[in-house]
Structures are given as C-alpha cells and as structure tokens.
Amino acid sequence: MSSPAHSFVYRLLRSSEKYFKTDMVYLAKGGFWLITSQVAISLSSLGLSVAFANLLPPETYGTYRYILTIFNLLAIPTLTGINSALMRSAAQKMEGSLRTAFNTRLQWGLLSTLLGIGITGYYLLQEDFVLAINIFLVSLFAPLFYSCEVYSYYLRGKKLFKHYSFYNSLAIIIPSLIVIGALFGSDNLTIILLSYFVPYTMLKGLFLFMTARQVEKSRPVDPELVSYGKHLSVMSILGVIAQNIDKFLLWHFLGAAQLAVYAFALSPVSNMEAVMGKLDLLIFPKVAEHNIGEIRKTIYEKALRIFLVAASVVALYILCAPFLYSIFFPQYLESVAYSQVFALTLLISLPLMVFSAVFTAHAKIREKYYLSVIGPSIKILLFILLIPQYGIWGLVFGTLGFHLVSAVASIFFFRNMA
Q1: Helices (H), 225-255
Q2: Rounded to an integer, what is the distance from CA 341 to the centroid of its chain?
C-alpha cells in the first residue's frame, strides 16, 4: 500500500504534466536513478581528475590522454552502431537481440586489435617505444572492452534504469578508485593503463553475463539488428574521428602538455553534459513508442525546456569556474577561460538530444546519414584549419561552429522528415 507521502508526490507529478507536457512520473522514476548514478560517477571522475592533476606531470598526463584517443579510434571497426540498434530492438521487445549484438561486436572487434598492432608497428619504426608498448597493450582489450558494453544499451531500451545505473556506476567508480591508488604508487603509464582497463573490462563482462542470464533464449531476435547496426556504424565513423581528432592534432602540433591543458578544460563540461545528457536515456524509449505526428506536437517545447535548464547550469558554471579550478586544478588555471567558453556548447548539444533520439528510434537512415556527414565534416575541417594557427582557441571556436551547424541541420531534417 502506498504511503500518504508517496500518494501526494504521485498526484503532484501527475498534476504537473499539463504544464511540462511530459510523463512526469516516468521522468521522476527513471531520472532519479540515472541522475543519482551520474552524480556518483562525476564525483569519482572529479577525484580521478584531481589525482591526475596533482600526481602526474602534464607531459605524462597528455601522453595518457593521447593513448586513450588512439583507443577510442580503435572502436570504429567494432560496429559501434550495434549499441543503438540493440537499444531500439530491446524497446520493441526483441530481447534475444542481446546475444546477437555481443557476438557481432566481439567478432568485428578482432579488427581493432589488428589495427592497434599496425599502429604499434608505426611507433616502433619511429622509435617511440613508450607509445608502441602501451598502444599494443590497450589494443588487446578492444574486442571484449567494446563488445561487453552492449548490456547497458539493452537495459536502457528495456527502461531498466535502476539496473543500468547501478551497474554503470560500479563499472566507472571501481576502476577510478584503482587508478587513483595506482597514481599514489607510480607514474608509470603501463601500470596506470592496466589499473584502468583490467577492472573495467572484467566488470563489464560480469554485468553482461548477469544481464544475459535474465533473457530467455527463446526470445525473438530483431532481424534488422545487424543491418541497421552496420548502417549506424558507418554513419558514426566520421563522428568518432571528429570526437578524437582534436586531441590527435593537439598532440602533434602543440605537444603533450597543451593536450593536458585542453583535457582539463573539457573535463568539467563533459561531466555536466554526462549528468544532463542522461535525459537522452529517458527520451529514447518514449519516442520509440510514439509516431512522428505525435512527436511533432511537443518536440520544440521539450527542446526549449532543456535549453532553459542548460542555460541556468552554464551561467552558474561560468561564474564558479575560476574558484573551482583554483581549488581542484591549481596547476591548470590556464584551462579556465577555455572551459568557460566550452560550456556554451551545452546550450546547443543538450536540446539536440531530442531530435537525435527521434532519428535513431525511428530508423531514419537517410537523415542520419546526412547528419553523420555534415556536422563531423565541418568539425574536422574547422579543426584542421584553426588548430595550427590558433591552438586551443581554434578548438574552442571550431567546436562551437560544429554545434551550430549540427543544430541547424538537425532541425531542417526533422521539419522535412516524412
């Protein structure tokens, strides 16, 4: 039996729906777990960033970030689009797709290891043995690291936000604590990388096993899972490159220390986007259940409300950033101005979550192909043109330009979508 307090909150949420035009009970239930989880993750990330800032020289940290950038690029052959395709399949009650998604990503992930070995060979020829050894090491983790993550997308599609949040929190917090412990004992890159990749991969494997065990083998498999996943993967290639080319170019033009400055400028903004971006996980299953005509009636209002929330958070962050950096990252005060301007990108990227969810949930392949080419191409072009001349500021304004182009393109394709 519900308590009086529970009944009051339920009635309050239901009565507020006429103002917010949203299922507020669903938002409160799912949002509680997602936001709580992300806050815990962000706090652990903050602790990890503080440890990196105070225990590791900028050059070493810049090298660490560069190796992670290479590892992110190794995700491309693993068919990253299978994740979103699985989320759609799970939302449509085709639970048997989980095993298919894992097996597909695992098989394609072997190409990532081969690619990593090729990059290792390049750095051996350059006689950069630190990069060669560590890139070879992380490339061995790629197949399992990326294929095991499919469980989280399955849980999102099934709206099992409590399970997703709990597993996701442990998968981030435990490795972060282990890395912090390693930093106190050593500044050796290989030890630091192993202290992250070993527990993270093992935990994701465990959570995949626990999730798959709950799915009956007789459950239907989405016949379009792999084909749609391949389409999404091809679409995402330019996006993955665009997300990582900034670090790659900074490393080569300005060196490891400036890459560290840039990484610490991005870190708080990325954490804010991660917390607020959890709304996307609530939005996706809902838009998958409604037709385009119904979505058109409320999508702009939803985007506006997200913008207003984002504007409040961004304004507060811009005011507080100098104070926060002086406490947590005193070695990186140079990052403050960059970070304040970077925060403005949230005013664009967060409202666009609504449109992105619609395109993916309703398998709008043509629109997604266009968007996957237009935005990332502009971003890559701006970075190549601006970084050599303006350094980190070139990245800042290139990123703002990319988000503006993506916003205009997303709204255009949504308005003209059949």
Answers
A1: 225-254
A2: 20
pLDDT in tens, 360-399: 666 677 777 788 788 888 988 999 999 888 999 999 999 9
User: In which element (H, E) is residue 147 found?
Assistant: helix 129-147
| DSSP structure class, residue 22 | S
**Is the pLDDT higher at 191 or at 418?**
191
3-state secondary structure of 329: coil
Overall average pLDDT of the 97-120 stretch:
95
Domain regions of the chain by residue span? 21-415
Burial class (CB in 10 A: 0-12, 13-18, 19+), 216: exposed
Percent of the chain with pLDDT over 70: 86
200 touches 177 (CB < 8 A)? no
What are the backbone dihedrals phi and psi of residue 232, each rounded to the nearest 5 degrees, phi first? Answer: -65, -35
Residue for token digits 């491309």?
A: 76
Report the C-alpha gap between 345 and 339 in whole angstroms: 10
Question: 21 and 300 in contact (C-beta within 8 Å)?
Answer: no
> How buried is residue 129: exposed, middle or buried, by Cβ count under 10 Å (0-12/13-18/19+)?
exposed
Cβ neighbors of 39 (< 8 A, separation 6 or more) are: 275
pLDDT single digits (tens) 188-232: 999 999 999 999 999 999 999 999 998 887 788 889 999 989 988
Name which residue leads in pLDDT, 298 or 232.
232
Task: Give the predicted TM-score (pTM) of the model.
Answer: 0.79
Q: Give the CA radius of gyration of the chain.
A: 21
Buried b (16+ CB within 10 A) or exposed e, 293-323: eebeeebeebbeebbeebeebbeebeeebee
Instruction: Return mean pLDDT, the chain.
Output: 85
CA 244 remoteness from chain centre = 12
The 10 Å CB-count burial string (b at 16+, else e) for 229-254 is bbbbbebbbbbbbbebbbbbbbbeeb
Rounded Cα–Cα distance for residues 50 and 36 (Å): 21
Q: Which residues contact 398 (CB under 8 A, 6 or more apart)?
A: 246, 379, 382, 383, 385, 386, 387
